[in-house]
Every structure is written in structure tokens, then in C-alpha cells.
Amino acid sequence: QELKGEVRFERVSFFHSDHPVLHNVSFHAQPGQTIGLLGETGAGKTSLLHLIPRLYEKHSGEIYLDDNPIEVFDTKSLRKQISLVPQDVHLFSGSVRSNIAWGKENAKMSEVVEAAKQAQIHSFIKTLPDGYDTVLGQKGVTFSGGQKQRLSIARALVRKPKILILDDSTSALDAYTEMKLLNSLKTQQCTVFIVAQKISSLKEANQILLLHQGKLIAQGSHEELLNESPYYREVFQS
Ligand code: M5T
Ligand code: MG
Predict the structure, then answer these.
(1) pLDDT 10s digits, 171-188
(2) What average pLDDT does range 162-170 have in this prediction?
């Protein structure tokens, strides 16, 4: 089935073996919205996001995608339409182009370039000795942390996902590059989930979900949370 990008959690709880990780989490993301996730290390951000492409099977409560229970989707078609940029970036020692097209080997060159532009890495690639044909690790070409992150975001975008999950994927970007990237994502017809450590990365999000020890302790826009949540103000403001 083709996704529209709506995601709804209703009282979702989740355990890693016997360890409680998420407790009674409810939220509703509309197609095209940007949803920020904030919370201390171990709060459950990655676990919550991994439920969306069904990387974990057993949860209680309900998860709906476009009003259908998530269980009706087969995982293969789901993962085609949901791109997840994991917390740890994996690049291999092939060309820049093949790294971006990884998992979508039939991608046209124009699509690869478009994705790289959206991910704010195109102009850097143009400075490499062989451009998109440059092989990572050869001719002394190495990527910085932030360049790796943008390459892996380009890899996610080339699949033209309906849901894009950025799990701490912009942590190494400067504020200006991050803002340009998030603005370019807004022009996609795509729901974006973004984990960040700083409020400044999430100011423009339609909703921010604030997790604490597996519980959603606040949710709303930046302005709403500033007014309503002392924890938000104190812990993440800097
Ligand atoms: C949430 C525990 C982890 C933590 C909680 C992946 C995984 C996690 N956990 C397990 O017990 N087994 C596992 O296989 O679950 O972890 P998270 O969702 O990874 O938290 P986070 O993404 O908010 O943290 P971080 O550090 O990425 O900001 O108690 O031990
Ligand atoms: Mg995590």
C-alpha cells in the first residue's frame, strides 16, 4: 500500500526483553509535518522511531499508519517508503554516487544529484577530485562527521520516502547548514521525525515530543513547551 505519511500512536508501551522502554506513548503526526524528539540518553527515542518501520514486533497499544493498524502492512513495502537514517552512519568504500544510491541501485544520476542537493552535500561533492565518482578512502578523500551525516541523509532522500526518520543525524552540522537542510525537507511531501539534542534544531517543528524515561512528559510546539514545561526550558535550552 502506498503511504500518505500519517502516523498515530495510541498508548504504546514497549519492552526490550524485560526492560520497560516506552510507557503509554500517544501522539498524532499529520502527513508532511515535522516532528521533533527530545529527551535524555536512554529516554527511548530510538526505540520509539524503530517501531514505525516495524523493526520491533511486540508492543502494546496501537500504531496506525494512515488509519490502518501497522500490522496490516508488510515490512518490505513499509521499509521502501520509510527511510531511517540511523544514529551510526555506515558508508562503504565505493563511490560517492553508489553510497547515495545504496539500496536503490537503479536511481538515475539526476535523482542522486537532487538528493545530494537537498541534503546540502552537493557543493562539497563537486569539490572532490572525481565528483560523484570519487571513491571514499582513495586519493586521501575522507569525510568529516557532518559530511558523512549529510551523505547518509542523501541516501535516505533518494528513495523519496513518505516518512523520513533522522535519528540524531544532524548532530555534527553547524546551525546554518542544519537550518538549510530542514528547510529543504519542508518542500518534500514527507513526514519527518527528527531526534536532536538541542532545542534550536527543533524550533520549526510542528510538534516536539519530549521523552523522559520512556514517558511522553510534554508535547507541543516550541512556544507551547517553553510556556508549559520547566524541564524543556531548563534541560534543553542551551
Ligand atoms: C531506551 C534500552 C536502553 C535504554 C532504553 C536498543 C536497545 C535499548 N535498550 C535495551 O534494553 N535493548 C536494546 O536493544 O532501551 O533506549 P533508546 O531507545 O536507544 O534510547 P535513546 O535513543 O533515547 O537514547 P540515545 O542515547 O540514543 O539518546 O534504557 O538501555
Ligand atoms: Mg538513540
Answers:
(1) 999 989 999 999 999 888
(2) 96
Calculate the average pLDDT of the chain: 93
Counting ligands in written order, the one closest to the CA of 40 is: 1
- The atom of ligand 1 lying closest to the CA of 50 is 18
Give the phi and the psi of residue 180 in degrees, each rounded to 5. Answer: -60, -40
Q: What is each CA distance from 23 to 19, 98, 112, 134, in whole angstroms?
A: 11, 40, 40, 46
**Model-level ipTM above the cut of 0.90:** yes
> How far is the CA of 54 from the CAs of 35, 82, 118, 144, 191, in angstroms?
18, 10, 27, 31, 17
The alpha carbon of 54 and the centre of ligand 2 are apart by a number of angstroms equal to: 16
Specify whether the CB–CB gap between 151 and 123 falls below 8 A: no
Residue closest to 48 by CA, chosen among 212, 226, 227, 235: 212
Collapsing DSSP states into helix, strand and coil, what is residue 24? strand
Cβ atoms of 9 and 63 within 8 Å: the answer is yes
pLDDT over 90, % of the chain? 82
CA of 131 to the centre of ligand 2 (A): 33
Does 237 score more than 80 pLDDT? no
Distance 41 CA to ligand 1 centre (A): 8
Q: Which three cell numbers stand for residue 235?
A: 534541560
